[in-house]
Amino acid sequence: xxxxxxxxxxxxxxxEIGQATSDTIGFYGNTPVDQPATVSDPAAxxxxxxxxxxxxxxxxxxxxQAATIVADLAALKTAVDGNNAAIDSLIDRLQESGFIASS
Length: 103
Prior knowledge:
Elements: H1 3-7, E1 8-10, E2 15-17, H2 63-97
Antiparallel strand pairs: 1-2
């Protein structure tokens, strides 16, 4: 039996490609690879806590308000960086399998 025939199986609800995580599969001429590792979910961004009461009326911002905004922006940057890393990992895995072209 051909190697490719052993990778396909009718599960009763559809066709499965590969029966084990160690089976290697490639698409569009890419070298077959085993199942890519999982991509961790990025941490959710913490709730923003800044309140700017009075600032929109021309009142100067307090040092405490400024510090809170700086902390919120740092938390937001951390969340965005985590999302970027997760997206980069997904792209790497799609390229490795051949589902999308490498640059």
